[in-house]
Write a structure and sequence with these properties.
By secondary structure, this protein is α+β, with helices and mostly antiparallel strands. It is 31% helix and 36% strand. The chain has one domain: Trna Endonuclease, Chain: A, domain 1. A 5-stranded mixed β-sheet has the order 1-2-3-4-5.
Length: 121
């Protein structure tokens, strides 16, 4: 049986393979930050590094089709805030934070689109 979780995992694998072929290196997968009172949890699907040292925080979204706006349109401002919060938490470990970027891999059906610098912190 194909579940939403299985589809999501498959999309994430496909996105990672695409980014690795493009020359990025994987730093971490599924980085999670716990929520607190009045603060929802945050997660970054993939954290990779570009050849120039830029740290890339990637949100992967998959939809069966582009109907209803598609995968990219499903990343709301609220979701962006949660990703940024998790990224900030991740960067607290770095003595000097590197340049960073927030990308989106949108998969609509069989179509994969890599949106570099899709949003800012």
């Amino acid at each position: 049986m194909v579940t939403t979780k299985t589809l999501g995992d498959d999309g994430e694998e496909r996105a990672l393979a695409h980014l690795l072929r493009a020359g990025l290196t994987l730093v971490q997968r599924n980085y999670r930050v716990a929520g607190g009172p009045g603060r929802p949890a945050g997660e970054v699907d993939l954290i990779l590094r570009e050849r120039d040292g830029t740290l890339v925080f990637v949100e992967v979204r998959q939809r069966r089709s582009a109907a209803h706006g598609g995968a990219a349109a499903s990343i709301t401002v609220t979701k962006q805030r949660r990703i940024v919060r998790a990224a900030q938490h991740f960067l607290m470990r770095a003595p000097t934070p590197p340049p960073c970027r927030f990308d989106v891999i949108a998969i609509d059906g069989s179509q994969l689109q890599w949106l570099k610098a899709a949003f800012t912190a």
